[in-house]
Write a structure and sequence with these properties.
Chain A: It is found in: Cell membrane. Chain A: Its main location: membrane. Chain A: This is Amino acid/amide ABC transporter membrane protein 1, HAAT family. Chain A: It is a multi-pass membrane protein. Chain A: One of its GO terms (cellular component) is plasma membrane. The complex is a heterodimer of chains A (about 325) and B (about 450). With about 325 residues, chain A is mainly alpha-helical. Chain A has a single domain, classed as Orthogonal Bundle (ABC transporter involved in vitamin B12 uptake, BtuC). In chain A, helix 2 packs across helix 10 and helix 6 runs antiparallel to helix 9. Chain A starts with a helix and ends in an 11-residue tail after the last helix. Chain B has about 450 residues and is mainly α. Chain B has 2 domains: about 350 residues, no CATH class; about 80 residues. Chain B is built from 18 helices and no strands. The chains are: A mainly alpha (about 325), B mainly alpha (about 450). At the A-B interface, helix 4, helix 10 and helix 13 of A face helix 7, helix 15 and helix 18 of B.
Chain lengths: ~325, ~450
């Protein structure tokens, strides 16, 4: 029995908790991608760098607060900074839309042209972030480090394995739940949200029934700004902030959105967790867990690590390929044909 | 300005820019710029083939470039005999088992029926995977244990022995081989991904490029991973040899050059010659292809896939064909670049530099026009290099009035290097907005 509990704790500690946190971050990122795809109908390559920009805005405001001596008790100051950073990011996105994207929308350009345009925006955003904050590694998490530390857990339960939950992991999951709840309430219950869904389902019909497309697009960018800022900040809090990493996150985020079905918000969340858990499980050495579960004679010699962590991209990629080959519209029916 | 004048004038502008660099900065810098410009032009030619001719959205250029670089190591470096003896057979055997496992999995997926289809396929894949790891891991450990500080990899196919560096022609052999390896990878990728719509193809190629880089970074037995392979043989003489050669020094002095300076210029000029020949051959081929019935068919498919299919054209097969050809060109360019660098450094491959920058070149130059792509290659490369000193000069100007040692001044001066990404984005957006067909549009 204790062996089983130890195995369970080890699995929770190394796979489930990190997987949940990472999944929440990916899901928030994928929601942004999927909303843009649903309403504006292109794959936004600049989304990773939008997340970096949002996280950077949070960091600057956090530093300002810290300089003023404002803190959030045991929680990271970054949480306080978040609303302000969202405002900044949303304003920047609205500005980008006004200066860049609107022209092509009015021209009814091919979606692929918009993708190339978003490549240009990606360069500019990436340049701005590097220019303003540099390329170094930045840790901006303060407050308590752990909700439960491994030592306390061991002392309380008497088990050999410890369970540690970092504050940032807890915050990630709680924040993600709150944000997603608000988003779904907005999309399903409010007038604007309903008009957004109508616009996404059938643009012509929505226009005929008097929905103002510019307003829908504006609201979409604001929501995307919020989602990107929250996702970027949570990822930065949990790991650390590095502008370059966000470009690399683009791949798992797109994989999550496509696996769930591009344009489908629920799919984006499910996809995010699928990708995250697959990545964490396949790259985690399972020796410890199996060691508790199996009788001694069967205990594995190696690490039982299916793939080295260096290949975590390969995991999201293979899942993406399988889903595309088996069910091209994603698990939940996306818009794509 | 008439169309016919536009092309020569724009190319003259590029010449002026490069010559200007030589006059105002240094001729070494100018030649280096020219050499990398030639390589960039070749990469742009490859992407233009895919995007301009066929409308394929490939954002995995970095992967193919890196595979070309890998070829440069695998062909022009000498084999590590000891490593081959210790674990070579086992490593290669493991790879063969891995390949066999993939084939068996595909076979199982095709042949099994009903419920067996899913679980049977998964079972075959898992068994194959563990067999592969069991054999392969041991081989890799043995190979990597052989002198890890110096070699620790299997080496290449240069059988020049001790004097492998004198077999510089192996570097030339590596260039077409780089193209072949990239073409092979592109064929596999294309088989799987080309049926997808354009955005999905983009994401798929983006992912594959990252995976290729991950493999090159972490499979030390292949090309030493992030420990890099240095001192690749080169097809041109070494500067030191030239400086020791009496005839060379004499001739250099006769022309009024310092021997060291002259030797640097001379080797770079030789590279320029090689690269220019490759570029001209590829340009000639691409022009021939563009103006042939095959090229017209490609553009017909690009402009209207449904109509082309109705006319009996096999769209998927043609797409696969041009995807392989374009990627092969990128592979050749990648091998050339690694030879020019003299080292393979997988850690330096970044999508912004090796994928998206090439895209900027093609879009700015003019997609669908080979001369446009080449022009874009030179022009954007020149800017990419020169924006940094320009940004620094600008920052020096802006910060001139600020007090010495102020934090803002230091930050601005340090960050000037990042101006280039910003500039590239602005240029791309400006061209897309005001001249969407590029500087030299498709005819």
């Amino acid at each position: 029995m204790t062996d089983f509990l130890n195995a369970l704790v080890a699995l929770t500690n190394f796979v489930i908790v990190p997987g949940m946190a990472y999944g929440a971050q990916l899901a928030l990122g994928a929601l942004g991608v999927t909303l843009i795809y649903g309403i504006l109908r292109f794959s936004n390559f600049a989304h990773g760098d939008t997340m970096a920009f949002g996280a950077m805005a949070t960091i600057f405001i956090t530093w300002t607060f810290q300089a003023w001596g404002i803190s959030f008790g045991p929680l990271p100051t970054a949480i306080l900074a978040l609303p302000f950073a969202i405002m900044i990011t949303a304003l920047v996105l609205l500005g980008t839309d006004r200066v860049v994207y609107r022209f092509y929308r009015r021209q009814k350009s091919d979606p692929v042209i918009l993708v190339i345009v978003s490549m240009g925006v990606m360069f500019i955003m990436n340049g701005i972030v590097r220019f303003m904050i540099g390329v170094g590694d930045i840790r901006f998490s303060d407050g308590e480090r752990f909700i439960i530390s491994a030592r306390d857990f061991k002392a309380a339960t008497g088990l050999k394995e410890g369970l540690a939950i970092k504050t940032t992991q807890g915050i990630t999951i709680v924040t993600a739940i709150i944000v997603v709840a608000i988003l779904f309430w907005f999309l399903n219950k409010t007038r604007t949200g309903k008009s957004m869904r109508a616009f996404s389902d059938n643009e012509d019909l929505a226009l005929l029934s008097g929905i103002n497309p510019e307003r829908v697009v504006m609201v979409t960018w604001i929501i995307v700004g919020a989602l990107a800022t929250v996702a970027g900040t949570l990822y930065g809090l949990d790991k650390s902030f590095k502008p370059f990493v966000y470009l690399q996150l683009l791949l798992p985020i797109f994989a999550a959105a496509i696996v769930g079905g591009l344009g489908n918000p629920l799919g984006a969340i499910v996809g995010g967790f699928i990708i995250a858990f697959a990545e964490v499980t396949i790259t985690y050495p399972l020796k410890k867990v199996l060691g508790y579960l199996l009788p001694e004679s069967l205990e594995p010699d190696g690490l039982v690590q299916l793939l080295s962590t260096d290949y975590k991209f390969a995991v999201s990629f293979v899942i993406l390929l399988i889903v595309l080959l088996v069910k091209p519209t994603g698990i939940f029916k996306g818009q794509s044909v | 300005m008439t169309e016919s004048l536009r092309t020569p004038l724009l190319f003259a502008l590029v010449a002026v820019l490069i010559i200007g660099t030589g006059i105002f900065q240094d001729w070494n810098v100018a030649l280096l710029l020219l050499n990398y410009g030639l390589i960039s032009a070749i990469m742009a030619l490859g992407v233009n083939l895919q995007w301009g001719f066929a409308g394929l959205f490939n954002v995995g250029v970095m992967g193919f470039v890196a595979l070309g670089g890998l070829a440069a190591v695998l062909i022009s470096m000498p084999p590590v005999t000891e490593a081959w003896a210790e674990g070579g057979a086992r490593t290669i055997g493991g790879l063969l088992i891995g390949a066999g496992a993939i084939v068996a999995t595909i076979f199982a997926q095709r042949k099994f029926q009903g419920r067996l289809k899913l679980w049977g396929t998964i079972a075959v894949a898992l068994i194959g995977f563990f067999l592969f790891r069991a054999v392969f891991d041991g081989g890799v450990a043995a190979v990597e244990a052989v002198n890890p500080a110096g070699t620790g990899y299997l080496g290449g196919l240069n059988f020049g022995g001790e004097n492998y560096k004198e077999w510089g022609f192996m570097a030339l052999v590596a260039w077409p081989v780089g193209g072949l390896i990239a073409a092979g990878a592109a064929w596999v990728i294309g088989k799987v991904a080309l049926g997808l719509r354009s955005d999905y193809l983009a994401i798929a190629t983006l992912g594959i490029a990252e995976i290729i880089i991950a493999i090159m970074k972490h499979e030390d037995w292949l090309a030493r991973g992030v420990k890099n392979v240095n001192g690749l043989p080169r097809p041109v003489p070494y500067e030191l040899e030239l400086q020791e050669s009496a005839t060379f020094v004499e001739r250099a002095n006769a022309l009024g050059f310092d021997a060291v300076y002259a030797s640097n210029l001379f080797t770079k000029l030789l590279y320029t010659g090689y690269f220019a020949v490759v570029l001209l051959i590829l340009l000639w081929l691409a022009q021939k292809a563009l103006n042939s019935p095959w090229g017209r068919m490609m553009r017909a498919i690009r402009d209207n896939e449904v109509a082309a299919e109705a006319m009996g054209k096999d769209v998927t097969a043609r797409h696969l064909q041009i995807f392989v050809l374009g990627s092969a060109i990128c592979g050749v360019a990648g091998a050339m670049m690694t030879t020019l660098d003299g080292q393979l450094t997988p850690g330096t491959y970044q999508p912004l530099r090796f994928t998206f920058l090439i895209w900027v070149m093609v879009i700015v130059g003019g997609s669908g026009n080979n001369f446009g792509a080449i022009l874009g290659g030179f022009l954007i490369w020149w800017l990419w290099v020169q924006v940094e000193p320009m940004g620094l000069a600008l920052m020096n100007f802006i910060t001139a009035g600020m007090p010495e040692g102020s934090a803002l001044k230091e930050h601005l001066l340090d960050s000037a290097a990042h101006m280039r990404l910003f500039t590239m984005g602005v240029i791309l957006l400006l061209v897309l907005r005001f001249s969407p067909r590029g500087l030299i549009p498709e005819r």
